[in-house]
Amino acid sequence: MPEGRHVAIIGAGAVGVISAIEALREGHRVTLIDAGEPGGEQAASYGNAGWLSSHSVIPPAEPGIWKKVPGYLMDPLGPLAIRWSYLPKALPWLIKYLLSGWTEARVEKTAFALRDLLKDAPLLHRKLAEEAGVPELVERNGVMHVFPSRGNFDNDLGWRLRKKVGVQWMELNADEMRQREPELHPRYTFGVVVEEAGRCRDPGAYVAALANHAVASGAKLVRAKATGLKLDGNKLVAVVTETGEIPCDAAVVAAGAHSKRLTASVGDPLPLETERGYHVMIENPESGPRSSMMASDAKMVVNWTNKGLRAAGTVEMAGLEAAPNWKRAEILRNNLLSMFPKLPKDIPASRVKTWFGHRPSMPDGLPCIGHARASRDIVYAFGHGHVGLVGSARTGRLVAQLLSGKQPEIPLAPFSPNRFL
Question: Coiled coil located at which positions (predicted)?
Answer without folding.
Answer: none
